[in-house]
Structures
1.
Amino acid sequence: MTKKIELDTLRVAGDAVVAALVTHAVKLDRGFVVGFRRPVAILVRRRGATICFRLDGGVMGRAAFEDAHRGAIGEFETRAARLQTPTVPAAREPGAAPVNNS
């Protein structure tokens, strides 16, 4: 059985981005694929700060988290920044009528 730890899907909740760090494994057992997926920790990014939580709800220090899960915080912050980047609609002249392309 091969185990792997990675970030799960990032979710946006208000001004926060949340993701679980999960471990998952898959194996072939008597012709059937068997696997599991379990959370290891939760990461929350809000107002430019990332907080790491253990599954019991306790806060885990950044250095301790990074020692246990090298690179996970950096990946999370990079992906979270992409989600939090505001998009600006295309500008129009003030008072201009909407464009009709038909």
Note: The CA atoms of residues 81 and 87 lie 12 Å apart.
2.
Amino acid sequence: MTDADAIQQTKVLLGYELFLHTVTLMTHFAFEKNKPEVIDAIKALVLAFQKSLTEEEKTDYQERLDNLLKEKGDALVAKLGENLTPEEIKDLLPKFIDQDNP
């Protein structure tokens, strides 16, 4: 790999990371500020993405999603526990996981 290739690859990676963090911030902000039209658009984008996947990609995506949920699950439950009872959390978590029914 040449120096120019390494620089280009770094620029692509930085652009990807910036995009990822911007979308995350936008999503958090939309929920925090109660922007239902934006939240609905994000949900529609997620569903369109999922529908575009091949069966092989769906399997790969589901594995990655499962790993993400395992990794972030404890933090999510702790955050939810600040405002919800354990019973409410138990009822709510399956709704987060079932992305076919936003």
Note: The chain has a mean pLDDT of 85.
3.
Amino acid sequence: MNWKILLTRLALLVIMVAAGMMLLAVTVNGMILLQWLPDAINGIPAGRAILTKTSYVFMAAALAGIISIFLTPNWRWVLLLAPLYAPTLFAIVYTLMHRAPVVLE
């Protein structure tokens, strides 16, 4: 692997990580605006619970992105874009799982 290709992939990963952080912030603030967040999840304030769990997902997605630098082109893009989509999807699903059920009358 050429060092220029390696540096280009690393720069693309850094951009994806930064974009993933921004997308997560916009998503969480959007959920707060739409009042999707419950007051507490398992006795812990909802914001802290979501951001704590999402930070673990974010670190795993960043590790997958680092691994993707050395993979073949077939699966590289799925793992390289993981820091962009994985934390946001996790935050949405985690929030929807812990919301109060909607009662239809």
Note: The mean pLDDT is 86.
